[in-house]
Amino acid sequence: MEYKESLLAGNFAAIDVETATRELSSICAVGIAIYQNGEIVERRYSYVRPPENRYEHRNIGIHGITPDVTEDSLIFPEVVQGGFFNDLHGMVVFAHNVSTEMNAFQQCSELYGMASPIPKWGCTLRAARKYLQSESYRLPVLLEKYGHRYESHRADNDAEACGILAKILLPELLADTVNYADDDITAFLRKQVWKASEYNAKDFDSALLRQNTAADPGNYWYGKRVVFTGDLDEMDRPTAANILHGLGADINTAISGKTDIVIIGQKAGPNKLKKISELKEKGVNIVEMYEREFLRMLST
Predict the structure, then answer these.
(1) In the chain, what are the domain boundaries?
(2) What is the CB-side half-sphere exposure of residue 28 using CA atoms within 13 A?
(3) Which residues pair with 42 in a beta bridge?
(4) Of the candidates 9, 5, 7, 51, which has an alpha carbon nearest to the alpha carbon of residue 28?
(5) pTM, full prediction
(6) 3-state SS string over the chain?
(7) What is the mean predicted confidence (pLDDT) over 110-138?
(8) d(CA 11, CA 36)
(9) pLDDT single digits (tens) 283-292
C-alpha cells in the first residue's frame, strides 16, 4: 500500500515537461514540485539538451526555449543519473494531461535505452473533468476558481500548479478508491478517471459543429474547416470555436485531408501533430496556426 499511504499522507509530486519538437522524446525542460503533508516542500527545474539540440519553431513559440539555451545542458540520461528524479520513490507523480508527460518520459527513456524514472502516474485533467464543474479545464482557469494564480510557460511553475490542483482533488480521488490496492489506485489515477479523449466533440455545443452559412462570406474564416488541438491561453476552446462559428468557419473535431487550418495551443495532441505531418507529406495544404497568429488574424 506504499502509494496509497503516501497519498493519504498528502505526499506526492507533480511534473511538467517542454519539448523541442513535435516528437515527445525531445524533452528540453522539466519541472517538478514535491508535496509533503499537502504542502509544497521543493521545486526543481532543469533544461535538457534534446537530441541533436534540434528545435521546431512551433515549440519555441510556445515555451520560448531556444537551441542556444540548451546547447551546453545535460542530455536526458545525465539529468536522471544526476539525481534530478531522486526522492520520488513511493510517490504518485501527477501531470495535467498525463498522456503527454508519461509518453514523453517513455519515449525519451526508450531513445536512450533506459527505464523511465517515473513509475507511477496520476492525471489531474481527467480527475478534474470527473469531479469539478468548469467551463474550461485549463490549469489557470481551474486554480482561479480556488483563489490561486500562477505564471505559466515554465515547467516548474506548471508543475506546482498541477500539484495544487492535485491537492484539491485528493479527497474525491481517495474516497473513490478507498478499497483499492496500490496497482488499482495508480491505474485509476492514470487511466480510469476519465476515459474519453481529452479533445472531444463534447467540448463544443453541437450547434458549433454545423457551419453558420449566414456569416459574411467575404471574411477569411468563412467556409474554412478548422480543428483545435491543445490549450489556448487567452480563451478556452469552446469560446474560440464560438467566435469562428460566428465568422462562418466549419468547426471539426478530427484532422483529415479536408482540413484547412489547425489551431495549435499548449500540450497539442501528438496524434494530431503526427496526422498533420502525414497529410502534408501527401501534399495536403494544411495551415498550422499558433495562438499568437490566431489572435492576430481575429483582430484584422
Answers:
(1) 2-192, 201-299
(2) 28
(3) 34
(4) 51
(5) 0.69
(6) CHHHHHHHCCCEEEEEEEECCCCCCCEEEEEEEEEECCEEEEEEEEECCCHHHCCCHHHHHHHCCCHHHHCCCCCHHHHHHCCCCCCCCCCCEEECCHHHHHHHHHHHHHHCCCCCCCCCEEEHHHHHHHHCCCCCCCHHHHHHHCCCCCCCCCHHHHHHHHHHHHHHHHHHHHHHCCCCCHHHHHHHHHHHCCCCCCCCHHHCCHHHHCCCCCCCCCCCCCCCEEEEECECCCCCHHHHHHHHHHCCCEEECCCCCCCCEEEECECCCHHHHHHHHHHHHCCCCCEEEEHHHHHHHHHC
(7) 86
(8) 4
(9) 999 999 888 7
What pLDDT score does 193 carry? 37
Common-topology check for domains 2-192 and 201-299: no
* Cα distance from N-terminal residue to C-terminal residue, the chain: 58
What confidence tens digit (pLDDT) does each residue in 12-54 have? 999 999 999 988 899 999 999 999 999 999 999 999 999 999 9
User: Which CATH code of 3.30.420.10, 3.40.50.10490, 3.40.50.620, 3.30.70.260 fits the domain covering 2-192?
Assistant: 3.30.420.10
Q: Which three cell numbers stand for residue 69?
A: 539555451
pLDDT in tens, 247-288: 889 998 889 999 999 998 877 888 888 899 999 999 999 999
**In this predicted structure, what is the pLDDT of residue 205?**
58
Q: How far apart are CA 260 and CA 262, in angstroms?
A: 7
Which amino acid belongs to residue 234? E
CATH 3.40.50.10190 matches 201-299: yes
How far is CA 88 from each of CA 3, 126, 167, 264, rounded to the nearest angstrom? Answer: 11, 22, 17, 32
